[in-house]
Amino acid sequence: MSADGLMLAFSKNEVCIPIKLPCRQAKALLNVWEPGCSRCSTTSVVALSRSPRCFSRATSSMNYSRLGAQCSSKSFSEMAPVVQGAVIVIMGVSGSGKTTIGNLLAEAANCAFLDADDFHPDSNKEKMRKGIPLSEEDRMPWLQVLCNALKNRITDGEITVLACSALRKNYREILRSSDPSYVTEKQGSRVKFVLLNVPVEVLADRLNKRLTNGEHFMPPSLLQSQLQLLEIDASEGILQVDATLNPAIIVETVRDSLVQRNIES
Ligand SMILES: Nc1ncnc2c1ncn2[C@@H]1O[C@H](COP(=O)(O)OP(=O)(O)O)[C@@H](O)[C@H]1O
Ligand SMILES: O=C(O)[C@H](O)[C@@H](O)[C@H](O)[C@H](O)COP(=O)(O)O
């Protein structure tokens, strides 16, 4: 594909017809697809480009999200020809919104959602419930179980959204190593991280409300230890988003950024 070309795949009854078009023509073509148009209910439109610049130019100047709502046009799974076996880890401290955003992202992208909390042994949850931070020894077996689960999904070519605190770089390295082709941190892994940034006062407020509503085992008293542990190494190039925004906007931002970063590479 040429660097300036957009590939459009029109999928109907499971039949894909990939075509290449210059940006301007692609935009013009996609613009005639109005929301509610009867063709949208039976046909999906996928715009893919190996050039992120080209993709963002085309998508930003047409009402792509409106089109997407009708045609589920930007789902990762519809990009299956180029995106196979990938994991998007929504990371951050407790209360940053990992479960909320991870669920919505997976739904929007039509792929599976896993919550790392569901992989903790009861002993870990009991410890946290009592207000005791987990130790390195508590976390290692848990991360290893997660790593194995992700490895199976990557090998099967599945796309997964995982909500996981992944606070330290060495924890993330364990998750990255679930990509069988990942050797060193110098190379890309099919496991990508998105950090949800939320100010401490907002986090405390969210955790207090969540506890009062009896929705979660994690006490607000553990927030400080979580923040102390959070380690972000600029060299990892982790995508960071303002997670105080409306969840729908966060999800849209994450999807757009991942597409622009070419999550398949
Ligand atoms: N973007 C957001 N705006 C407002 N409230 C949010 C947002 N994201 C999450 N919440 C709320 O904050 C609380 C913590 O969110 P949750 O998804 O459970 O975080 P985590 O999984 O990181 O602990 C929940 O009550 C949730 O409804
Ligand atoms: O490594 C850890 O200390 C835990 O994984 C922790 O980071 C996580 O935050 C808790 O499991 C609470 O779950 P939530 O993050 O969903 O509140």
Automatic annotation (TrEMBL):
<dbReference type="GO" id="GO:0005975">
    <property type="term" value="P:carbohydrate metabolic process"/>
</dbReference>
<keyword id="KW-0418">Kinase</keyword>
<dbReference type="InterPro" id="IPR006001">
    <property type="entry name" value="Therm_gnt_kin"/>
</dbReference>
<dbReference type="Pfam" id="PF01202">
    <property type="entry name" value="SKI"/>
</dbReference>
<dbReference type="GO" id="GO:0005737">
    <property type="term" value="C:cytoplasm"/>
</dbReference>
<comment type="pathway">
    <text>Carbohydrate acid metabolism; D-gluconate degradation.</text>
</comment>
<protein>
    <recommendedName>
        <fullName>Gluconokinase</fullName>
        <ecNumber>2.7.1.12</ecNumber>
    </recommendedName>
</protein>
<dbReference type="InterPro" id="IPR027417">
    <property type="entry name" value="P-loop_NTPase"/>
</dbReference>
<keyword id="KW-0547">Nucleotide-binding</keyword>
<dbReference type="GO" id="GO:0046316">
    <property type="term" value="F:gluconokinase activity"/>
</dbReference>
<dbReference type="GO" id="GO:0005524">
    <property type="term" value="F:ATP binding"/>
</dbReference>
<keyword id="KW-0067">ATP-binding</keyword>
<keyword id="KW-0808">Transferase</keyword>
<dbReference type="InterPro" id="IPR031322">
    <property type="entry name" value="Shikimate/glucono_kinase"/>
</dbReference>
<comment type="similarity">
    <text>Belongs to the gluconokinase GntK/GntV family.</text>
</comment>
